[in-house]
């Protein structure tokens, strides 16, 4: 048997690792819930809730095809070591991932373990992000080439395998703080697809102008960011749906669709920056700022005021309170609140 390690690719459609593994035989479809990841400062309870819903939806889709998702809780190396030994696994298929420094270090540990254990790790490109580029020249053309390849169909059937799952932990069981977000988006592929279709059917008609305003953007933006981030929908699916809508030639839709497609490019463009220079997570891009002192004696209290929406600047505070309640903010307001945090 081979393992397909699901990470932030929580779907069956357009899933190259799953298709390749099934072509070779039986598959253990695996998700590893890593408690240590959820202790990192850039993780939150609302993200965990969205993940939980998305994993549950993936499990249902897999079960309907003959084999539910196998969930294991723990350190990735320990989980993979045990599974590979018990089930004589020699290949692990997975998508490349560009996330935070913790996952980068984990992936390096997994690769080192696999070399020593004689297990082959096969990674597949998921977005328009490329590993080990020596130059950004030609990147846009590579992005277009990948997005225009045909999406891979979901498998009709998975052979059943005799592998038990761990119970999915409640957030408090792995140390995740209570994080109420009453108006956040729900996870799962079906919800993401409904969001995409409603955007192209009605909501996106005024996207180009409305995306700049924090009031109108809530309805007029695609709201696909979390579904792309967790892989409930592939970037290629979103791109090709946009291209199909463009081909319909509906009156008034050319401009909003063009703007939407630009944002799909930007999604991968900025992730590519982190892929090329992972240290950007921990220090400024510009070396002149590397030795800069971080704030004044009251920097922590100012940061808390920013987080809680009580800076005294009405637009900043309104956006931060909206973000706290809903978990989402249009990208121009994200840029505004972040520049305020950095400069003010």
For the biggest sheet, the summary is: 5 strands, parallel
What is the overall silhouette?
A: globular
Please work out how many helical segments DSSP would assign. 14
Radius of gyration, Cα only, in angstroms? Answer: 21 Å
In angstroms, what separates the terminal alpha carbons? 55 Å
Amount of helix? 40-55%
Q: Could you spell the SSE succession in H and E letters?
A: EHEHEHEHEHHHHHHHHHH
β-strand amount: 5-15%
Helix/strand/pairing category: alpha/beta
Determine the mean pLDDT.
95
Strand order of the largest sheet: 3-2-1-4-5
Unreliable segments of 5+ consecutive residues: none
Number of strands: 5
Could you characterize what this model shows?
It is a single chain. This protein is an alpha/beta fold. 48% of the residues lie in helices and 8% in strands. The protein contains 14 helices and five strands. It has a five-stranded parallel beta sheet, with helices on both faces. The mean pLDDT is 95.
């Amino acid at each position: 048997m081979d393992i397909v390690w699901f990470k932030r690719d929580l779907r069956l459609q357009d899933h190259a690792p799953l298709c390749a593994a099934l072509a070779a035989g039986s598959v253990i479809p695996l998700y590893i819930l890593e408690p240590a990841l959820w202790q990192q400062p850039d993780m939150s309870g609302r993200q965990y809730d969205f993940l939980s819903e998305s994993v549950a939806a993936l499990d249902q889709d897999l079960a309907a095809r003959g084999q539910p998702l196998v969930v294991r809780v723990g350190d990735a190396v320990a989980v993979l070591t045990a599974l590979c030994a018990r089930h004589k696994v020699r290949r692990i298929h997975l998508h490349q991932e560009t996330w935070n420094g913790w996952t980068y270090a984990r992936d390096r540990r997994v690769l080192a373990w696999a070399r020593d254990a004689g297990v082959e790790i096969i990674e597949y490109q998921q977005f328009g992000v490329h590993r080990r580029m020596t130059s950004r020249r030609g990147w846009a053309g590579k992005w277009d080439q990948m997005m225009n390849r045909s999406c891979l169909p979901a498998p009709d059937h998975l052979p059943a395998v005799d592998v038990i799952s761990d119970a999915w932990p409640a957030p408090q069981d792995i140390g995740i703080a209570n994080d109420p977000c009453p108006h956040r988006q729900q996870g799962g592929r079906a919800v993401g697809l409904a969001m995409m279709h409603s955007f192209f059917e009605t909501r996106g008609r005024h996207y180009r102008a409305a995306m700049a305003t924090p009031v109108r953007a809530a309805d007029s933006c695609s709201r696909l960011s979390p579904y792309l981030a967790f892989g409930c929908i592939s970037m290629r699916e979103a791109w090709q749906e946009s291209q199909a809508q463009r081909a319909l030639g509906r009156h008034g839709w050319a401009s909003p669709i063009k703007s939407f497609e630009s944002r799909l490019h930007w999604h991968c463009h900025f992730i590519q920056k982190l892929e090329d220079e992972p240290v950007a997570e921990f220090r400024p891009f510009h070396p002149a700022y590397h030795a800069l002192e971080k704030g004044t004696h009251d920097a922590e209290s100012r940061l808390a005021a920013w987080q809680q929406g009580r800076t005294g600047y009405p637009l900043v505070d309104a956006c931060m309170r909206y973000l706290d309640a809903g978990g989402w903010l249009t990208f121009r307001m994200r840029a505004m609140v972040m520049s305020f945090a950095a400069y003010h």
